[in-house]
Structure formats: structure tokens, C-alpha cells
Amino acid sequence: MRITFGRGLTAxxxxxxxxxxxxxxxxxxxxxxxxxxxxxxxxxxxxIRLALPTSVTSFSNSDIAVARELGYFDELGLTVETTNxxxxxxxxxxxxxxxxxxxxxxxxxxxxxxxxxxxxxxIASYADRLVVDMVTSKSITDPAELAGKNLGVQEIGSFxxxxxxxxxxxxxxxQSDVSYVPTNADAIVSGLVAGQIQSxxxxxxxxxxxxxxxxxxHSLVNLFQIEPKYFYGTYFASQDWLKENPDxxxxxxxxxxxxxxxxxxxxxxxxxxxxxETGFSEDIITQAWTVYMEDIEAFAKxxxxxxENIDYTLQRMDELGTLRPGATTDVSGLVDRGPITKAxxxxxxxxxxx
Length: 354
Known about the structure:
Layout: E1 21-24, E2 46-52, H1 63-69, E3 78-84, H2 88-97, E4 102-106, H3 107-115, E5 120-124, E6 133-137, E7 150-153, H4 159-170, E8 179-182, H5 188-194, E9 199-202, H6 204-213, E10 217-222, H7 223-226, E11 233-238, H8 239-244, H9 246-265, H10 267-278, H11 282-296, H12 307-320, H13 338-347
Parallel strand pairs: 2-3, 2-4, 7-8
Antiparallel strand pairs: 1-3, 4-11, 5-11, 6-9, 6-10
Helix pairs in contact: 1-9, 1-10, 5-6, 6-11, 9-10, 9-13, 10-11
């Protein structure tokens, strides 16, 4: 299925009129925890407003759904209200403006906000390894053949545009050699099938579905194979919110870490949850589970937030021209490890990734 080539804001106002879909996650009452804490401990109820970066939740950030449906937020006294936006940049703007408490996004818009003065901190990750492919028709067998083609991206600087730019760079092409077509993440497959775009960046579940709908589609480039150190998904909050809600941040990252571990350990339990959340069949999610959890090991089981990979990603952004001009390259304060460190201490560290 996979063919691999080459090597590799601050916002004053945030308007939530962005084709968003809102869903409230359950968890109205505090309850005892069952892992890593005193079984008799209870927590003051806290509601967290969370922004996700795509209009339909992907497997990559389905850890939120797993934590919700399996009661991991409930047992820590959290109600997590999720809102799906169009792109990671919208989630960043929403957190900066105070419309949301925590955001999820690929790392690029978070770095660009931080290095231009936004008081954000990354506190955790969803899938932190690249779990996407560039998908084209089988008539395209080399990335060099993308010259002159219409390529589907969300917006300049968005995750899918950056991934597209990395593929182009690998064969000495640039944006000027192709035509970008603004395409929402959930419309890429239909755009490919209809021939409106000739390439798109897809998650594993989207790729499997696309190949079923149109057998002429295939993976031209697997991004993880050409960029194994590139850091992908982050959860972040404003520094002001973190100062006011340090315990809530710990509880949030603890529930996510527990969800990540369950996603590895209990395929049968999580596949129906992820299928319901993403809108894909359980058969497709089962196939995608193998890619995420076995082939790539996309989620951290412990703290994650590998600084070497974050530094590498900053370097690649600079090389690719996706780092905002004139921005500082000092990201030493970007990550606040306090919440996830305490969360893993509560749960106990286990063998495995990060």
C-alpha cells in the first residue's frame, strides 16, 4: 500500500463562525480514581473548554474520545467540552483569545504563535509521530510528477501544507511549481476521487477509506518514513490558564496518558469508540489501529514531549520557510512539563514509548 521516495497571533478577537461542530463530553461529578491515586480521593469539578484542529475528529486525536467514553475524565472530576474547528491555527487563536482553555493542533501553528509572542505552553501530545501519507492517483509514481498539478492543502502554514512542502522539497520543487487548492481536511478524499485535486495528505483511516472508494488512489509518500523525528500533535494552553489551573492540567494529561495506554493494550475496547467518534467503520479503524499502534507507535505511553524531536522540527520549519519571518528560534520555554510529569508520577511510569 505504501511507496516511499526520497528524504526528506496573537488574536485580538476570535470568532467561532468557522464551520465548527461542538460536542460536550460527559463528566459532571467527581469520583474516585482507580489508578495511581488514593482510591478515596475526590476532586473539585472542573470544566475544560477544548478546541480540536479538524472539523471531524481523527484517529490522531481520538484519545480525547477514549478518555471521555471510558470514564477517565469522569474519575478525575473533569468535564471536557470539545469543539471541532477547521484547522490548528484556529485552535491556537481560540486559546490565545481565551475562547478555549486547551487546544489541540499540530506543532507548527503553536510554534509560530509562541515565537511571535503568544504566551502558550505545550503540555501534552496526541499522536506525536507523523501518521500521514501523501496520496495521489497511481498514474503519479514520483513526487517530481507533481509539478503543474493541483494539490489539496488547508492553508499556508497548516499541517497538511507543511507536509506537502516537505514532499516537494525532496524533489527540488516549491510552491511556485504547483497550484495549491484550499481544501478542508474532511474534503480531501472527495476532492481526490472527483479529480479536483491530484494530491492530498491523509491519515491512515482516510487513506484506507480512499483506496476502497477509488482503487486508482495510492500512497505516494509515507511521511513518517522520510521524517521519523518530526514532531506532530500537541495539546497546549495559555500560561495564564496554567497558572490558575495547575491541578486541572495535571488531571487532563493524566486522563490522556491513561487513554493512550488503553489504546495500545485493548484494541477491542477502543476501536468502537474511535469508529463512532471519527465516523469510519470499525473495519477501517481496526486496520488503522495496526498502523497507529503497532507500525508507528504514534502515541506516548509516558511523558513524551521529546525535546530533541521538537528542536529538530523547529530546524525543519526554518529550512522549509514555515517559521514566521523575524521570529526568535528560542523555544526553550515552549513546553511546560510540570503537568505531564506529575500525571505520569501519579499513574506510574511503564515500559514503552517516551
